[in-house]
Task: structure prediction
Amino acid sequence: MDGYRVIRINDTSEAEKYLREIGAEELGIRLMVPKAVFRAVKIQSLPAPAAAIIKQEMLAKGGEAAVNRRTITGEGKTDVLLLGTLRHYQLLINKLKMQPFGLKKLAAELEIILQNVESASGVKLNLPPVLQPVWGERTLIMGILNVTPDSFYDGGRYSEVDAALNRVREMVEEGADIIDIGGFSTRPGASPVPPEEEIRRVVPVLKRIKQEMPEVTVSVDTFVAATAREVLEAGADIINDPGGLKADPGMAAVVAEYGCPVVIMHNRMGGGYRDLMAEVVADLKDAIGLALEHGIPRENIVIDPGIGFGKNAQENLTLIRNLGELRSLGRPILLGVSNKSFIGRVTGDPVNERLIGSLAAAVIGVMNGADIVRVHNIRETRKAVAMADAVKEARHG
Result:
């Protein structure tokens, strides 16, 4: 024996790679790949009879299922933690499709969730043609352009059109793929801005960008449907909605009408989570459903966990650590962590000294599944994220 390795297999493509390196027979590879990938799936609040069936069937297939010890009474509800390989899940799903207590529907959802996780690297997204060649090849950088007088970071430096345009040129040169224009501040305690004022701030800058740099992809950060309509008429390519399509009932219809990509951000301002990750996933799933109901194609949807919106510092850290769980939704993930207060809570740095913490959070986010990062510091983030992308790619090399 020349040596050994303890191998971590993250997905089916890695499993196939290792099996081919061994020189396994083709039929054997197809049979073994689902057995090489382990997944843990938590299902919340199932009626005890349904949970008992799942536990029995998963154990019979060779996997594991943990339920509340009181489930044996057949009363109440319980969470279920499933532990098994993809092969175990395939067998379980086939069996559950023939079971009562709503388990047929649950089987279909399990099938979709697991497919979403395994196909995470190939998620389709309708983007402007200039970005299509790089989509899926590397993490996209969204540069923040605040044209507000009360931004927590920029402090009104770009509220004049010429200053904003110069900043756009600088960000593009530094490697920004998308410019995200914001006409109102989302910092805690910021004053509300009427749609007319938001439009007055954003549209002149947007029009100048499209006149002088038509190749630049521009998103607009707004939760107001009237503003979204005006900026889309002025040439915006993407709507970045911090209200998650719920703050303004008309937003989804406007996005559907113009056929543009939309970023749906999680934003439960009241907070108060019992199970943070489960609730964020559930809320985003509902928002995606709302988008689909209004005619927004699935391929036009990006999701954002809403770091800093209705979450405390510890919850923000938990979201970044477990960001990969959002892959179950089958949509690309945008992560916005740049210079936010939770970084200062960890590092002790004031807002203008949080670059290192911001880069660390962005890199960890990319390693955990972020496809787009929304940042202030373009040049530094581009280099840090390029390193993260290279490490991710090396897993498959």
Notes: The chain has 14 helices and eleven strands. The mean pLDDT is 93.
